[in-house]
Amino acid sequence: MYTARIKTHGDSMARSMTDVRNFKVFADEPPELGGRDGAPSPLEYILVAHGTCLNYMTFFIAKELGIQVRSTEIEVEARCPVSDNITNATPVSIGLVAA
């Protein structure tokens, strides 16, 4: 079983750098939230994680069911802080369009 581990270093309230395996992931906030707009925000990263997970699971489950998926297009939007997304259920609506 794989256990993910990260280490985050903050150089201000809005900016941080996280070590993930052999990668460095930067986060920053937009100027209106005190950042310098130098990287995606933590909220945007959680949306990225949600979208990429939905993409992976679409292909994975389709393969299990013998369905060919050529591509996906996923849009994710949330306005609440990351802690709210983790603590509370976030409404999700999924649609399927046949080509």
- Number of distinct helices: 2
Give the overall form.
Answer: globular
Mean pLDDT: 89
User: What is the strand content?
Assistant: 15-25%
Secondary-structure-derived class: alpha+beta
- Residue runs with pLDDT of under 50 for 5 or more positions: none
Distance between the termini: 37 Å
Q: What order do the SSEs take from the amino end to the carboxyl end, as H and E?
A: EEEHH
DSSP, total strands? 3
Strand order of the largest sheet: 1-2-3
Estimated radius of gyration = 17 Å
> How many domains would you count in the coordinates?
2
> How much helix, percentage-wise, in residues?
25-40%
What does it look like?
By secondary structure, this protein is of the alpha+beta class. It is 30% helix and 15% strand. It is built from two helices and three strands. The chain has a three-stranded antiparallel β-sheet, with no helix packed on it. The model has no long low-confidence stretch (mean pLDDT 89).
Write the layout of secondary structure elements.
Elements: E1 6-10, E2 16-20, E3 23-27, H1 42-65, H2 82-87
What is this entry, summarized?
This protein is of the alpha+beta class and 99 residues long.
List keywords for this structure.
single chain; 99 residues; 2 domains; 2 helices; 3 strands
